[in-house]
Amino acid sequence: MTGPLLTVESLCVDYEQRRAGLFSSRARTLRAVDGISFELAEGETLGIVGETGCGKTSLGKAILQLVKASAGRVIWRGVDLARTDAETLTRLRSELQIVFQDPLSALNPRMPVGEIVSEPLRVHAPDISAKERQAAVAAMFERVGLRTEMTRGYPNEFSAGQCQRISIARAMITQPRLLVCDEPVSALDVSIQAQICNLLRRLQRETGISILFISHDLSVLRYMSHRVMVLYLGRLMEIGRRDELFDNPRHPYSRALIDAIPEADPNQSPLGMADALPGEIPSALDPPSGCVFRTRCPIATPECARERPPDECIAESHRVSCHHWRQARSQ
Ligand code: SF4
User: What pTM was computed for the model?
Assistant: First the structure.
């Protein structure tokens, strides 16, 4: 494969918020994703990080066409997903799957888990027999570390970690080429988190699948990702290779996030998010002018209020959106 598997161009997602008054209601637009562009290669994991409300989940859903983009394009293997015909989109959907944060609520409580996992096959491979479907589900259960007899159980009979394995099995049963993992380990104990991360990495090695790994936890992201993208209030702040971004963050926001990572050495205390980045996230309904990060940025200047910083390419695969990225590291 020469070109990227996925190209996202200037993608925007808007939600209309209606505020009811006594005699009328007023609509306001919340821009959850604001002009994000990036590419994803085959077999690559791109980590997406940012605080609550930064647009991570909306971005993932817009890529999968689960929410409608208000502007921009999602090009999957050369096909513009928003503009293709319904038949092509249905066919391509089997290549694009998602794993959610809360595994138990993502599974239908009234269905045996084997049926839950086989459901996508009924939709995307209607011609295969019931026996073939059963065999595929049994093989997938073993692949994600579950026993085949577990297919008969219901979701509430399983632990959170087992439910996440079932969710992954359902997502993988159609042999997708892209997996959007939306905070897939946030609801799990630390020891189980490691098991699920290792499972996803093994599945990627075996299948060459590409992964968009959404998380607010930079330590998990560092373990999982080849590249990392940092979002704030719906905008891209920085994107680059994992080690480059962790060792030498160029954007003040990336730097604050990295400074707040808990240290493995108990004698070294991390800054903590409140110290690394004081202040509140502004409302997405009324974002700051110019650079949206300026109200919390330690090196903001009047220019930052006037002009939105451009996405600047500072090295191969490394882009930063900051007027003063050259000074950021020395502050
Ligand atoms: S553009 Fe200005 S406010 Fe925004 S991150 Fe850079 S220095 Fe800070």
Answer: 0.92
